[in-house]
């Protein structure tokens, strides 16, 4: 039972569907004839055309009729069915009025059925003909020869009366490369020409133009296509000078730069790697130090309370040193130290300081190669001095001359060292403890010949210390000697010279760097500024070792010894 | 000398008076710059403009007015007019009633119209549209803010119409040597009352815009024809 019902329902459904299909297809009414469009190409005539739709029996001529109404007047039949073609109704200029409403009707032949009606005004249905007469002219080719610009021109459609101003048209050109699919539109303009920029040589282009009425939206058909082609021009020649110019320019610039760098090397070095500023005493011009203007220096330095400037007191010097005037005349051309050596009384430990350009106008040697060395030497000196001072009984020299021009050597640290050394030196002086400390050896006597005999104050101590600390002492002495400038060198020389004549008062000044002209230098081997002290003899004189010759006997740089030199000098 | 002194003074005074009188009479003849008002309303001295330039300027005005009116029409149609009414069929239903004397529509007829007639037609058209456009501005205000652009365009067009009117008057004066004594503003609101089917304000406004667009086109075409005739008389009369 159920199955039967199902079967029946299925059958009924199928039947109904089929019937329904039939019904739906038949219920669609056939499409009636209708006006496809009306168009006026030049605003002077217009035509309308129609389609019969599904009514195939009405396609033949005369099957349908067109009636029109002008300005809501009477209905009249189409004046011309043939001019415009089949299914067209053409209205010539006599029937055409602009800005006036028209209505057209598509009627059956019997004129009782109106299939379609359309109303319009002629100015709204204006669709012009395409422009004609396309041509192009070359504007220019780029320097590289890759691109070119052209100017395209055309004529308005001949049907449109643009000249009289009856119709105003605007144009839109389009272009594309042949192998491309998209057209590129250009600006819509009133003019009948336009420029196209940036076309590539060696490629063929297509150009077309269309127009429309200014206020309308309907464009005309496109004009005929215009083909533009410019072959590629080999432009190696134009590139060549350009690249050459570039290359030469770059090379020239490089050369100039190199010249500048090499010529101004020093300046550039200073500019880029400025030298580390050396500490200076404020207010002291290094020039003063070079020239040895001690008065100015003293005045400058009087401001520093750490330093007690001691003006050179000639009187004090006179106390210590009596110059041999006779010898002085003969040796007027010699240096100060030589004059000093010519004096008979030599109590002082300082050589006479004459203000000359030798730069060695100090008995205190503030020049120290290293602060470390200075510290060491000073510490040791202090030790010894302390020991010596205790046993000293001599009256202190009131004239603690401290005429060292501290600025003789490099100021700053050395001045500091000098200032540090000054007290001890002063104390030294005051106590007249002319021990053979780092800087000085007491002059015990001066030989008639001008030789200076050095003798330490505290002989025993010296001996002890000398024997005990021979090597350090020698080192110290060496240090002392080496740290000094030419003064100690003189001392050394005198020591050396005094060595052979220690035992007697033989004024054999055999060797002295400053008395070379006088004394025969043959007896004593050439001695440099510095020698080591071998021993102290019975008369408390220093025995210098003449054998050890520093490799560099010739001018030491401003009294400084580098550690390397020092090491080389030391035994 | 003292005897002739009063005589000399009298003579001098008489001369001065005569000169003043003479110059007073000739004041207008000698010519002083016309008081022209520029856009800001300040009085500046005018320089006379050549006929060609004037014609070009007038045509420029007409073209612009037509262009803007067409834009307004399209905008209004897009915004307010229902889609069903967009067809040409319905658009043309809103017929515009022309003025008192009908203007021929066909090209041949228009070409036969004289210069004088052309100018007067244009002037009449311009004058007839100033008031309806003012009225249209008022009605457009009632719309919401969507109609602002249309309102602005309408205002602009109204201003341009006024200046176009001045230009046409000047053209008439120059080309036809006529002086317009009075500017006649016709009442044009009645023309839309004759369309009973137009009830809705939207359609009425749309009708106003479309009709104005047509008349603006007319003005432009007429003026261009006039220019053609002015530049090359012979070819322009041949249809």
TrEMBL record, chain A:
Domain of life: Eukaryota
Pfam families: EpoR_lig-bind (PF09067), GHBP (PF12772)
Keyword terms: Glycoprotein, Membrane, Receptor, Signal, Transmembrane, Transmembrane helix
Regions that span the bilayer: 239-262
Ranges where the Fibronectin type-III domain occurs: 130-233
Cell compartment(s), UniProt: Membrane
Region ranges (Disordered): 361-429, 544-571
Bias (Basic and acidic residues) ranges: 373-395
Signal sequence extent: 1-16
Membrane topology: Single-pass type I membrane protein
Protein name per UniProt: Growth hormone receptor-like isoform X1
Organism of this sequence: Huso huso (Beluga)
Automatic annotation (TrEMBL), chain B:
Keyword list, A-Z: Disulfide bond, Hormone, Secreted, Signal
Matches recorded under SUPFAM superfamilies: 4-helical cytokines
UniProt subcellular location: Secreted
Pfam families named in the record: Hormone_1 (PF00103)
InterPro entries noted in UniProt: 4_helix_cytokine-like_core, Somatotropin/Prolactin, Somatotropin_CS
Predominant cellular place of this UniProt entry's protein: secreted
Family statement drawn from the similarity comment of this UniProt entry: Belongs to the somatotropin/prolactin family.
Entry protein name: Somatolactin
Organism of origin: Huso huso (Beluga)
Organism classification: Eukaryota, Metazoa, Chordata, Craniata, Vertebrata
């Amino acid at each position: 039972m159920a199955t039967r019902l199902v079967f029946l329902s299925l059958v009924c459904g199928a039947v109904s569907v089929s019937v329904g299909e039939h019904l739906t297809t038949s219920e669609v009414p056939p499409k009636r004839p209708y006006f496809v469009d009306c168009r006026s190409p030049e605003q002077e005539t217009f035509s309308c055309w129609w389609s019969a739709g599904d009514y195939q029996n009405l396609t033949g001529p005369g099957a349908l009729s067109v009636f029109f109404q002008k300005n809501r007047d009477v209905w009249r039949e189409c004046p011309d069915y043939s001019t415009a073609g089949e299914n067209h109704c053409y209205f010539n200029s006599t029937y055409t009025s602009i800005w006036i409403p028209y209505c057209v009707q598509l009627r059956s032949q019997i004129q009782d059925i109106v299939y379609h009606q359309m109303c319009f005004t002629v100015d709204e249905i204006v669709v012009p003909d395409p422009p004609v007469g396309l041509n192009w002219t070359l504007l220019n080719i780029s320097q590289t020869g890759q691109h070119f610009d052209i100017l395209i021109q055309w004529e308005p459609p001949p049907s449109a009366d643009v000249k009289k101003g009856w119709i105003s048209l605007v144009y839109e050109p389009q272009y594309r490369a042949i192998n491309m699919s998209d057209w590129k539109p250009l600006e819509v303009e009133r003019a009948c020409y336009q420029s196209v920029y940036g076309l590539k040589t060696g490629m063929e282009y297509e150009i077309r133009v269309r127009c429309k009425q200014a206020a309308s939206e309907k464009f005309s058909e496109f004009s005929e296509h215009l083909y533009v082609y410019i072959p590629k021009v080999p432009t190696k020649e134009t590139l060549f000078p350009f690249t050459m110019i570039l290359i030469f320019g770059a090379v020239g610039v490089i050369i100039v730069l190199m010249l500048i760098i090499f010529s101004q090397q020093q300046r550039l070095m200073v500019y880029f790697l400025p030298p580390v500023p050396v500490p200076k005493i404020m207010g002291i011009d290094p020039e003063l130090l070079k020239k040895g203007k001690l008065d100015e220096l003293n005045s400058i330095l009087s401001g520093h309370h750490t330093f007690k400037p001691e003006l050179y007191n000639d009187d004090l010097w006179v106390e210590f040193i009596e110059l041999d005037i006779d010898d002085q005349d003969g040796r007027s051309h010699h240096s100060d130290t030589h004059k000093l050596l010519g004096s008979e009384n030599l109590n002082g430990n300082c050589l006479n300081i004459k203000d000359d350009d030798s730069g060695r106008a100090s008995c205190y040697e503030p020049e120290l190669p290293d602060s470390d060395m200075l510290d060491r030497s000073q510490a040791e000196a202090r030790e010894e001095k302390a020991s010596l001072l205790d046993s000293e009984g001599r009256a202190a020299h009131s004239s603690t001359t401290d005429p060292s021009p501290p600025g003789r050597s490099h100021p700053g640290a050395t001045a500091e060292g000098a200032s540090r050394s000054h007290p001890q030196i002063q104390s030294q002086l005051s106590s007249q403890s002319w021990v053979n400390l780092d800087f000085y050896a007491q002059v015990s006597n001066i030989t008639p010949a001008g030789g200076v005999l050095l003798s330490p104050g505290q002989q025993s101590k010296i001996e002890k210390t000398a024997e005990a600390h021979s090597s350090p002492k020698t080192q110290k002495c060496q240090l002392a000697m080496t740290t000094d400038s030419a003064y100690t060198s003189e001392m050394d020389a005198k020591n050396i010279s005094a060595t052979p004549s220690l035992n007697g008062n033989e004024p054999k000044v055999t060797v002295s760097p400053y008395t070379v002209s006088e004394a025969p230098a043959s007896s004593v081997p050439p001695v440099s500024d510095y020698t080591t002290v071998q021993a102290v003899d019975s008369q408390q004189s220093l025995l210098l070792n003449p054998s050890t010759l520093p490799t560099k006997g010739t001018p030491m740089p401003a009294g400084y010894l580098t550690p390397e030199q020092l090491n080389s000098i030391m035994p | 000398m003292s005897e002739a002194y009063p005589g000399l003074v009298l003579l001098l005074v008489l001369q001065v008076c005569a000169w003043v009188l003479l110059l007073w009479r000739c004041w207008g003849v000698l010519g002083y710059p016309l008081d022209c008002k520029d856009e800001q309303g300040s009085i500046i001295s005018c320089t006379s403009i050549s006929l060609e330039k004037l014609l070009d300027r007038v045509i420029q005005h007409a073209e612009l007015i037509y262009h803007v009116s067409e834009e307004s029409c399209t905008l209004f149609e897009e915004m307010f007019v229902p889609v069903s009414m967009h067809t040409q069929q319905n658009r043309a239903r809103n017929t515009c009633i022309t003025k008192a004397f009908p203007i021929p529509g066909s090209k041949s007829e228009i070409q036969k119209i004289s210069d004088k007639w052309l100018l007067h037609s244009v002037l009449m058209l311009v004058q007839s549209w100033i008031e309806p456009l003012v009225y249209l501005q008022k009605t457009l205000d009632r719309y919401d803010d969507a109609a602002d652009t249309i309102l602005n365009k309408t205002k602009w067009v109204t201003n341009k119409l006024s200046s176009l009117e001045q230009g046409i008057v000047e053209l008439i004066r120059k080309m036809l040597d006529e002086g317009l004594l009075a500017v006649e503003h016709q009442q044009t609101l009645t023309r839309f009352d004759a369309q009973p089917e137009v009830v809705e304000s939207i359609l009425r406004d749309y009708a106003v815009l479309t009709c104005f667009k047509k008349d603006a086109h007319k003005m432009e075409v007429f003026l261009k024809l006039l220019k053609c005739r002015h530049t090359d008389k012979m070819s322009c009369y041949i249809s």
